[in-house]
Amino acid sequence: MNRRKHVQSWVPLLALGIAGGVGVGAACVALAAEPDASPAPEAAGAASGAVSVVPLRDGLHMLAVDGVNVVMQTGPDGVVLVDTGPAAGASALVQQVKQLTKQPIRFLIDTSADAALIGGNAAVAASGQDLATTDTFDALEVNGNTSKVDLPGEGATADIIARQGVLTQMLSEPGANYGSAALPRDSFTRREFNFFLNGTPIAVVALPAGHSASDAAVRFDRADVVAAGAVFDQTRFPVIDLANGGSIQGEIDALDQIANTLAYAHVPVLANSGATLVIPVRGPVSDEDDLVTYRDMVATVRDRIEYYIEHGQTLAQVRSEHPARGYVSRYGADSGSWTTNDFIDAVYNSLMAQRKGHHGAKQQQE
């Protein structure tokens, strides 16, 4: 639920609005396309518990918390964090923020309901301060002297912004048991949630159901930086969470939307400066070219699997065709929380569900 906040005369008003519709184009990827494989980049985070810092632009930093990228904006009005990383890294994240600025954490923005991205919500929010708790207004006393009047705030913790679906998933996730301090207080269902802080517009943009049904990206307009969320992971194939509404077509549509409406290429094309910085959920700082390369990889694997489905192959047969060939050394894994076969299975089941008209349905059994 969105709510109005009273703010000091020197603090820019938080303007909540709905952006107009934007067109999304999709590039066509040839089935035969298979670029040379290249080594997978190391995760941006260092050892467990450590937080690495990469300065970006105009008061923005990328903080890697146990491998998860957290985007931090600082300024005179306070700190905005996009995602908080896993719970185990929350204390280290808070300490790193305090080393970078004396301003309090005002807002957290959740780009999905993944525990690895929002596990630190409660602890990080508790270390911050809602903008409303420090609001003061000039009051004219009877004798003509001006004094400040403190207004009661809604809580001493930082505010959390997310799509309504994130809140719903957090409340319904089996075994999650999130406390109220970790839950979004400002949830939205419209296309964008816009506000103005530290002298720049900030847009939280709803994405198509790719990784999940509640994905979002965040654009910091003045700095020309986009936090892409879970749909863009430079360290592995994208996680398609079918149980929570994700789909392979939604994943591609989400990447298209970011590339076509939120990120901007170098101008002129041959210049190596001036492009939008795109921050993946894991991996190094990227740009639109990196994003489009990732999108084309996903579309190529999707096209191959769709071809095999059209020719009547089962999931086991599709796996034997190695539809992710050419990309495995860059994005694949044989073990861990998300393997190459996990990705292939998710694409296959998503396409089969789409064929049956049950977009995002539960996985079929092999």
What can you tell me about this protein's structure?
- It is a single chain.
- The protein is an alpha/beta fold and 366 residues long.
- The chain has a domain of 247 residues: Ribonuclease Z/Hydroxyacylglutathione hydrolase-like (Metallo-beta-lactamase, Chain A, 4-Layer Sandwich), CATH 3.60.15.10.
- It is 26% helix and 20% strand.
- The strands form 3 sheets. It has a 7-stranded mixed β-sheet. A 6-stranded mixed β-sheet has the order 10-11-12-13-14-15.
- α6 crosses α9.
- The protein is globular and about 60 Å long.
- 45% of the residues are buried.
DSSP summary, beta strand count? 15
What is the gyration radius calculated from CA atoms?
Answer: 22 Å
CATH architecture of the domain at 51-297: 4-Layer Sandwich
Give the CATH superfamily of the domain at 51-297.
Answer: Ribonuclease Z/Hydroxyacylglutathione hydrolase-like
Q: In which order are the strands of the major sheet placed? A: 1-2-3-4-5-8-9
Strand content: 15-25%
Order of helices and strands: EEEEHEHHEEEHEEEEEHEEHHHH
